[in-house]
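Input record (one chain):
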Amino acid sequence: ALISGIGIVSPVGTGVAAFWDGILRGVSGVRRIDLFDPAYFPTQMAAQVMDESYRDMLTAREQKYFSRGSGFGVAAYRLAAQDAGIQDYDSHRTAVIVGSGISSFDVIEENVHSAEGSLRIYEPVDRLGMAKAFIAAPAAAIALVSKAGGYVSTVSTACTSGLNAVGTAMERIEAGLADVCIAAAVDAPISKIILSAFCSASYFATDNAHPKTCLRPFDIHRTKCLLGE
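The corresponding structure, as predicted from the sequence alone:
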């Protein structure tokens, strides 16, 4: 088994070249959250994808029907397919395995708000909400656009989800169960619900005045964590 193509959508850069350049220059992807107003939270920072150029790789229909996390996954798949240069493959021998921990709480929040915060009575919500909110949604979206007709699965093992997805993909190829595997990691956890929960657990760094230097996970004076897309 070998990796033939890579695609990246990240807070440090979109595409392998931009991402690698950012890593080499020590660019921090941490900045103030702008997906919503974080002023009332102890932690107001996260590693958010600010570069919206990934949306150029999605059709208008895909932007409408896919969640933010699924959009990341589909854009990254298209970058990886372009990098690999694979033109023809047997769809029924092609698998999609995605590692994902949190990718759709933003969709759940939107639906709760549209129901005026009450689930005790029926209130019409986004008819696409459930399709967007499933943890399997990114894998389904990638399978749809890639026309992969083989094994499609989601691995959810918290921080190791992406690594386990790649490992599972390798095992399927080595076992002769697939010729091609599209392995991905997708997380879009920056939402009020998730931020509030982790803040309540005192899990995040709170030096909001210095977002570029507040995160020091490998320092003798290490700080706490932050959310990242």
